[in-house]
């Protein structure tokens, strides 16, 4: 009996494999509701940086991104000038892609507009799910869609404020990462834990 319980508690979504960093992200971060604007901007940046790359590549650079972008302080990033941009282009710790780096700065400025209009990035994003996580019931990773009608709507809304690297697929990955949707597969122990977490707060 105890052996079966241990197996159940350690069964995870297959996508995280056995890389310690990936497993830690799956167990502690992915799907946990986020309501802090700084962290929301961080995840928006990282999801955009992932385009064309693997998520583990970005995870390995996550701490470097925090250092490079002033811990994702929205006001500071929005004020970056050409000198700072060139400095970022020379930073080997992040993805040195001109479009991705410039989009992060543009996105910070767009987020400022969102905050002026909606009070916070948090309020804006979570309004798309009426403030509550959507708990899906996917049996396998192959069942999980790359994008949804809701992610298409979010993508259009973000683009209307000037955000870039926010296509429907990136937006859905973003929604998964910040807990707007719970897309852990039903056999994963975190699927059940996150449903329970909804009643005990979020980050």
From TrEMBL:
Binding site for Zn(2+): 13, 26, 184, 188
Catalytic activity: Hydrolysis of alkylated DNA, releasing 3-methyladenine
Stored InterPro entries: Adenine_glyco, DNA-3mA_glycosylase, DNA_glycosylase, Tag
EC numbers for this chain: 3.2.2.20
GO terms of molecular function: DNA-3-methyladenine glycosylase activity; metal ion binding
Xref: Pfam families: Adenine_glyco
Swiss-Prot/TrEMBL keywords: DNA damage, DNA repair, Hydrolase, Metal-binding, Zinc
Superkingdom to which the source organism belongs: Bacteria
GO biological process: base-excision repair
Function: Hydrolysis of the deoxyribose N-glycosidic bond to excise 3-methyladenine from the damaged DNA polymer formed by alkylation lesions.
UniProt-recorded name of the protein: DNA-3-methyladenine glycosylase I
Organism: Solemya velum gill symbiont
């Amino acid at each position: 009996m105890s052996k079966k319980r241990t197996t159940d508690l350690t069964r995870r979504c297959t996508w995280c494999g056995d890389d310690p960093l990936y497993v830690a992200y799956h167990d502690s971060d992915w799907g946990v509701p986020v309501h802090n604007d700084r962290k929301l901007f961080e995840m928006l940046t990282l999801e955009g940086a992932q385009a064309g790359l693997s998520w583990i590549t970005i995870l390995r650079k996550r701490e470097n991104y925090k250092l490079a972008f002033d811990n994702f302080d929205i006001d500071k990033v929005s004020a970056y000038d050409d000198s700072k941009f060139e400095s970022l282009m020379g930073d080997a710790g992040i993805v040195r892609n001109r479009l991705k780096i410039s989009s992060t700065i543009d996105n910070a400025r767009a987020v400022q507009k969102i905050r002026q209009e909606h009070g916070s990035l948090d309020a804006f994003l979570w309004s798309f799910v009426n403030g509550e996580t959507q708990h899906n019931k996917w049996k396998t990773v192959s069942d999980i869609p790359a994008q949804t009608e809701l992610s298409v709507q979010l993508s259009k809304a973000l683009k209307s404020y000037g955000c870039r690297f926010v296509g429907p697929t990136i937006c859905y990955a973003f929604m998964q990462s910040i807990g707007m949707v719970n897309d852990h597969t039903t056999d994963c122990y975190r699927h059940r834990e996150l449903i329970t977490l909804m009643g005990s707060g979020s980050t």
